[in-house]
Design goal:
Number of helices: 10
Distance between the termini: 13 Å
CATH architecture: Alpha-Beta Barrel
CATH class: Alpha Beta
Strand order of the largest sheet: 1-2-3-4-5-6-7-8
CATH superfamily: Metal-dependent hydrolases
Number of domains: 1
Order of helices and strands: EHEHHEHEHHEHEHEHEH
Structural class: alpha/beta
Radius of gyration: 17 Å
Number of strands: 8
CATH topology: TIM Barrel
């Protein structure tokens, strides 16, 4: 099974994209050999009312029959009712993954609210943390959003020993000791959607370990072919095939 752990549905506010709808993504994914995708909602990055966002995402995923789409719902621990949102996502929507956007939602990984979320999610949900949505150079001039500071994640994981985390769009921050340290836990995984440079996958595998790397396309903001080509052009053809 080839899984895309980093895909999105919906409209990005700053430009129209060709794979915004589930059906369009499914056609492209099938052509590339992707058999399952974890889908976030672009509405979840910006909307305050996330319950409706997550319900629409779940319906869109269920409605696409040609490929397995799994909703990675949006939870914002800075909101007062986030615990109820989490409960409803588990009990009513039956989801297994949550996707976090700390930089867009206004909290840090050192905040107690994040620690509480990680503790409640452990053993129940895979937790995806999106470090950035766009390269900072392409952001709208009135919407400059810095990437998430990942350093506090190490301490947060100590408080949640069963938590399993996927770091999305974060390869720039993971080339040094921080990435190695997180990978050594065996509970943190990393997608390569924003990996750049010749031999990038080989270098990432040497630093983080092959089992820590996941296929992520960051569709529709990126063309899915990009992530697939990085794998095909590498010497690590089975990379990203392990289950986190």
């Amino acid at each position: 099974m080839t899984v895309d752990y980093n895909a999105n549905l919906g409209r990005w506010p700053f430009r129209r994209l060709p794979l915004e709808e589930a059906a369009n993504y499914a056609v492209k994914a099938k052509a590339l050999g992707i058999t399952q995708a974890w889908m976030g909602s672009l509405e979840g990055v910006f909307h305050q009312e996330l319950r409706g966002v997550n319900q629409r995402l779940a319906r869109a995923c269920q409605g696409e029959k040609s490929i397995s789409l799994l909703p990675a719902v949006s939870i914002n621990p800075a909101l007062p009712d986030w615990q109820e949102d989490l409960r409803l996502c588990k009990e009513e929507l039956g989801v297994k993954a949550i996707r976090l956007h700390p930089n867009y939602h206004g909290y840090n990984l050192s905040d107690e609210s994040f620690h509480l979320l990680l503790a409640k999610a452990q053993g129940e949900f895979q937790v995806q943390i999106v470090l950035r949505m766009e390269d900072e150079r392409t952001q709208h001039p009135l919407m400059r959003v810095a990437p998430v500071d990942l350093k506090p994640l190490e301490a947060a994981l100590i408080k949640a020993p069963l938590a399993r985390v996927q770091v999305l769009n974060g390869m720039q921050e993971l080339r040094g000791e921080l990435g190695k340290s997180l990978a050594r836990t065996g509970r943190v995984f990393f997608d390569w959607a924003m990996l750049e440079g010749a031999g990038g996958l080989e270098k990432a595998a040497a630093n983080l370990g092959e089992k820590a790397l996941l296929l992520g396309t960051h569709a529709p903001l990126f063309h899915p072919e990009s992530a697939i080509l990085k794998l095909k052009e590498s010497s690590l053809r089975t990379l990203g095939m392990s289950t986190p």
